[in-house]
Amino acid sequence: MNKPFDPAVRDFLDGRIWLRQHTPFSVEKINEHIESGMVETTPGVKMKKGLFGQPSCKCVRCENVDPQLFTSFDCLQCEGPCAYCRNCLQMGRVSVCTELIVWKGPCTEYPTEHALAWEGTLTKRQKQASKELYESIVRARPHLIHAVCGSGKTEILFEPIHKLLLAGKRVCIAAPRVDVILELEPRLRAAFPSTKLEALYGGADVQAFDAQLILATTHQLYRFRHAFDAIFVDEADAFPYTAEKTLQHAVRKAAKPDAPIHFVTATPSDKLLTDIKKTGAVSTIYRRYHGHPLPGPRYESLWNYSKQLSKGKMPKALEKWIQQRLELSEPFLVFFHEIELMMKAEQAIRQLDDRIRAVHSAHPDRKQHVQDLRAGKIPGLLTTTILERGITIKNIQVAVVGAEQSLFDAGALVQIGGRVGRNVNHPSGDFVLFHNGISYAMDQARREIKRLNAGGDQP
Amino acid sequence: MNPCLLCMKPISEVASWQSFFGIEKKKTLCDDCSKRFVRADIKEEGDVLDAVHSLYEYDEAMRDWLHQYKFLQDVALAQVFSNELRRAFSNKDTIVPIPMHPERARNRTFAHVETLLDGAKRPYVQLLTKTNTTVMGEKSRHERLNMGQLFELVPGAVVQPITYRLVDDIYTTGTTLRRAATVLKQAGAARVEAVTLIRSIQK
Fold this sequence. Notes:
A: Rossmann fold; 13 helices; 20 strands; globular; B: alpha/beta; 8 helices
């Protein structure tokens, strides 16, 4: 029964579902493995005729079934009507006549020796949460770590992940946003120095085929299938994970059929809370790791800010706030609800200090600018909600311009406020909401922060 | 409501009598995405090629669109410019798309210029075939200008002494269009004009 195979092909394909034409291996090599039965092919899109003859499609890679996200066309390859999936198009088009491949041979065996080099200590609550999480892992039930921003959520995962790795398990930490992955990568590399680790996000190639610990944007999980013994979804409530059903399917598909999916977040949706309570367990942490309360929001009116900024004028209160930060040389973030307004504001704000920059999701230098802010090379950044979570910068001060906008729901505002006062030496800071009228979400966020702070008093 | 073809966000549409009676064509892009495409309407005249009309300049938005359409093979994006392309022609025009080599067309699974015209609902006649599989985008300006034959007439094709309008996705050096025009003129075409979606301006 022992058929020969190339271990590199096994390491790469085990747990993945990949386009046959776009592997890192030669076509001949893949063909050999298909002939020997080590690799199996499957059509990329399954098309079925519905009850009334209308075709219904399912993408085998991303499990998308939304008819709006399939396009039918006359294909010159298969010489007939064909359809492709637009949902996962950016990873290479998958159509009815595209072949996907999966590994069928013996599984990769992962090493069981791993070092945990993290030398910090957990607080009592962190320790308890870590223990509870591990218990859930052993009992194969989903677990939610519901912990306020800056309570050291990532550190809670270290011990359970280490135990999984020691058992030769493959582990994934997934987050909807690439910024969170970029922030996590160096911390995990430092914590697990002897573990093969890889971060996957749009534009990053697969380098370490047999990485045992994978950090990935939830999008990247489209390309995995039955790969992981445990998945931790960080910042689970962040757009677009909650918005897109297919992404949730992707996470489920990437895990082995009986492997639980765990969640880590500061602002779980009501649905996540009720779902988890039915089948799993929840650990809650109300206190930040340094024991100080979360900074509450301060309201300040900024009437007609949109009109003023569009005209290139600086609203007085905003100018004063930025001026103060510059004088005290405190790093700051100013959040905007839309790119266009932010770009107009950038021109006006840069008259105060020309080093100030603006970043948004499509900005080519966003990684660099965030690093520059952290290194103190630039005094502050204007940003869209892309930096609302996962970002830790010492002594950062935060303002939201247009806090009443519907984009800033209570969860987003709690997350934005969570950037402030994360450091032991700077446990507080200014969190100001500039508004053109107070919204329900603003009050909700303020109440939630109060509630969390009060909860910490009753252990 | 269909989402925007480029950013996948829902398109906000204001209810109007036109949309109620189905006169207005359904939008394919949201306002933000359609704002990125600015009409340039570059028109030029020459000898081999009597006139060229390019609808858009090759900018960032167009580069992204072309990449997604041709290289990610997103056939649906042919709809984005269907209205604009439709209006670039009249009912009387005889349209000849620049052909792809059959083998390359099979690899791409669709012929991109013909699919654009299909989207614009403009009928066309295929008078030319591509004789080799070279890719213009991979060649330098010098190489492009010194290439051998690129096109020949489809066997049995009849070229009449009328005006033909060639169509291509992008005009860079103009080699492709001029070669195609030469073939048509040698076969008896009176006048050959061209319409391209994009004009790449060499800087």
